[in-house]
Design a protein that fits this description.
Blueprint lengths: L3 E4 L19 H7 L9 H9 L4 E4 L8 H9 L3 E5 L3 H13 L4 E4 L5 H12 L5 E4 L7 H10 L1 E6 L19 H7 L4 E6 L4 H11 L5 E4 L7 E6 L3 H15 L3 E5 L3 H14 L5 E4 L5 H12 L5 E4 L12 E6 L6 H8 L9 E6 L2 H14 L3 H13 L5 E4 H8 L5 H13 L3 E7 L2 E6 L13 H8 L1
Parallel strand pairs: 1-8, 2-7, 2-8, 3-5, 3-6, 4-5, 6-7, 9-14, 10-12, 10-13, 11-12, 13-14
Antiparallel strand pairs: 15-17, 16-17
Length: 463
């Protein structure tokens, strides 16, 4: 589908948009409703296009104010704006902020009781809400689909839209349902938003959502207040010394990213000895949900100034005064690095981004690539094993599938096989818990060549 692109990044790295004389007269009046007096770069033009009922694809840097691009039109027009976001942990914060402004907004996700979910769906169907936030997993819920059709969605906002694309650094299979979802809703106007999207990802997002001649806004990627630094210390001891020096000269809150849970745990122990006057928290996907939420809350409310984390921490973290981001290990892609480092300095003040590079980090990332894109034979073995299971649904741990197939993959590799089968619509994931799966086999296996992404080869070339 053709993309009408507005690239607003100047050679100097600043963002300038041409004046738009055809804006609705009330747009500035509605801006004040959000407690704001001026637009950030690009916001006015994106909002104008949304009000003009154009499909839009908005590439705006982290901290650039993407949310206002659908929130302001939502209060200017009649009808429901449905926001799809993977950020369940932040939905309540966003909705609380909107409700404090007198805006009829809510969220519907798994943190609510069944009764609360039903009550909010009834409100939505009755037309009493301006904005409803959902996670993409909600699109599996038949009751929700019936209620949202009754609500007559006027605008669909897809946040973190790069998750739609297998070429994106954070592909999520549930996002792949959005194209079919739009069709079932009668093709509502749609805005897709992300901070990081290569041209290939942009085209893929537009194609999968089936946007109608979308207007593409790129407000630039340069963050002039961020100082990017790379050091290449010798071994772990060299990295620890670089950390010590950096932390002693850099006050304020920060995140230290490491590649594995084990490395995070080791780092926390080292830092607690090294930084006795600074509280250090640990965050990774292996912690219980309530523990992760508690650590995130402590960090956001300045009770915990330093977090050591895997890349499980950070998507949607909006802490404007984050003064530094350190990568103890090289991340898996340039897009992931930009997204993670870009969490620093959202308040516009000078902030630092440090990468501690070692050649060994490359081998770790290649291991992750091998797990994310397992061999064709492994995918077929997992399919054949699940196909022979008599239960419906099939409830097995990833370790049980690994043992049953005899594959030498890690459990993460087994999970990747499932994701590939799910993307091909061969397998339906009914539930997803830590190291466990409840699935149903829906159809025969298509040609395996069609299932496997070429991204693994591309990522290796980039690295």
């Amino acid at each position: 589908m053709p993309l009408a692109e507005t690239n607003a990044e100047s050679n100097a790295g600043t963002t300038e948009f041409p004046a738009n004389e055809a804006l609705p007269g009330s747009i500035d009046a509605h801006l004040s409703r959000f407690g704001l007096t001026s637009f950030r770069a690009g916001q006015r033009e994106v909002i104008s296009a949304v009000i003009d009922k154009q499909d839009c694809l908005c590439i705006m840097p982290t901290g650039g104010g993407k949310s206002l691009c659908y929130q302001l039109p939502a209060v200017m027009r009649e009808g429901l704006t449905l926001v799809v976001s993977p950020l369940i942990a932040l939905m309540k914060d966003q909705v609380d902020a909107l409700q404090a402004l007198g805006i009829a907004a809510t969220f519907i996700n798994s943190s609510l009781t069944q009764a609360e979910q039903r009550e909010r769906m009834e409100e939505m169907a009755a037309g009493r809400l301006d904005l409803v936030y959902i996670a993409p997993e909600r699109l599996r819920n038949q009751s929700f689909l019936e209620k949202v059709r009754a609500a007559k969605v006027h605008l669909l906002a897809v946040d973190e839209a790069h998750c739609i694309s297998e070429w994106g650094h954070d592909f999520r299979p549930d996002y792949a349902r959005l194209g079919r979802f739009r069709e079932r809703l009668g093709w509502p106007q749609t805005i897709a938003l992300t901070a990081t999207a290569t041209p290939k990802v942009r085209d893929d997002v537009s194609r999968q959502l089936q946007l109608r001649q979308p207007k593409v806004f790129i407000t630039g990627f340069a963050r002039g207040n961020l100082r990017f630094e790379v050091q290449e210390p010798q071994g772990d001891l060299g990295k620890y010394e670089s950390l010590r020096v950096f932390l002693e000269e850099t006050p304020g809150a920060g995140i230290i990213y490491a590649a594995t849970r084990k490395r995070c745990e080791e780092l926390v122990e080292v830092l607690r000895e090294m930084q006795k006057g600074r509280k250090v928290g640990l965050y990774h996907a292996g912690l219980m949900p309530e523990d992760r939420r508690s650590i995130q809350d402590d960090f956001m409310e300045d009770r915990l100034p330093l977090i050591v984390a895997t890349n499980a921490f950070g998507m949607g973290i909006d802490k404007p005064d984050l003064r530094f981001v350190i990568h103890f290990n090289m991340p898996g892609s340039l897009e992931a690095y930009y997204q993670e480092a870009g969490r620093a300095g959202r308040d516009g003040l000078p902030s630092r981004c440090l990468l501690l590079f070692s050649q060994a980090d490359r081998y770790v990332q290649e291991f992750f690539i091998d797990n994310k894109y397992p061999p064709r034979e492994a995918v077929k073995k997992v399919y054949d094993f699940l196909r022979r299971e008599q239960a419906d649904p099939i409830e097995l741990t990833l370790q049980e599938i690994k043992d049953g197939t005899g594959l030498s993959l890690t459990t993460e590799g087994i999970a990747s096989c499932e994701k590939i089968l799910e993307k091909a619509q061969v397998l339906e994931r009914l539930d997803s818990r830590q190291n466990q799966a409840a699935v149903r086999i829906d159809s025969d296996l298509p040609t395996l060549v069609d299932l496997l992404s070429p991204e693994a080869t591309v990522q290796r070339k980039v690295m």
